[in-house]
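Aim 2, interim progress. The first record below pairs a target sequence with its structure tokens.
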Amino acid sequence: MASRLNKRSVGSILGSVLALTFVVAVLAPGSAQGGLALGKNVRWDFVQVLPAGAPTTGIPGGTDTGRDAATGDTIDLTGSGGAIPALGEATGGGTFVHRLSTGSIFAQGFYVVTGFVSWERRTGTFPLPNDGVGDISQASAGLLTLNVRFFSSGGSPVDGVLTIHCHFPTTPGPNDEGFDLTVLSLHFVQAGGVTLFHVFR
């Protein structure tokens, strides 16, 4: 259907994904932004929680899944990046795979962050003994909303709004771990995966 994301082959996006990975690594907090920027830096990651069965550590490189209730379509996202809320700046991106309700791949490619919308830091204690992303004292629950742009072959880039949620067991309020994504007529809500923020100067 025309309102869904356009198709893209794995081979044709490999170079772009590799380039994006380099850009994210350079621009993520702790490197180019580090502690030199004005105000607090927020790093976000879709993380893996390992080992399976008895997890003790969160590390980068996870995949989160969202589902659109109306169509049954799903989208898998990887990604990481950063934001400086006081300056209204944000960076990052990752890859996506959009599947129809039948399970067949409809589109795949990559996305980049194009703008900062909002940030809300929330209380809570990181529940694992080891933090493989950053310092465990800087791990944070929260809610970060970003403007993003999806790139796939066969058509123009598509803009969307991505809201990343991180909820610890001791965080007050609803357990809204994961992400929400609105793109075109689709609204994906979290159906699996883990997210994590780190806040530092």
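The second target in this work package is listed in the same format:
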Amino acid sequence: MTDCIDGARRRVLQLGLTAIAFSAVSKPALAAIPRPKGEKALSFLNLHTGERLRVAYWRDGLYVKPAFERINHILRDHRTGEVYPINAGLMDLLYDLQKSLRHHSTIEIISGYRSPRTNAMLASASDGVAKRSLHTEGKAIDIRITGVSLRQVHTAALFLRRGGVGFYPSSGFVHVDIGRVRSW
């Protein structure tokens, strides 16, 4: 029995030493990997407040914190004024959506962040609003893109397969989110 315990201790010790050796080698190796250069920028128009924003939110491989403070503000709940942190993945989705459309014009915001109170009010008034919406988590946005048809935005968003895509032609917007892949 003591041989079994000693063998287990040896294995744990070997695993620990291997992990230490790997981390000592991998940190310099990771530091040597060059970060991508360039920037990712988006332009917004909040249709409810009239505010405009053009902002580089990613530069040389890093997200730009002051840019996200401005993004959080323009995507705030326009009914309550509540500001919430918008997920960086949502900005990457919008950037990639515009890139796939080969059109980098203004993203018109119909609805960005929604406070739980606002979402509950909207959900009680309409079957088209989810009770547990990703808007309340800063992971969804309802948009139009200046100069691009809703059909084109919808098709491009579906093609990316990066989250949920809702098509609301009678209301004049496309919903995109970074949740599970689905469409309606």
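The radius of gyration is 22 Å. This observation will shape the mutagenesis plan for the next reporting period.
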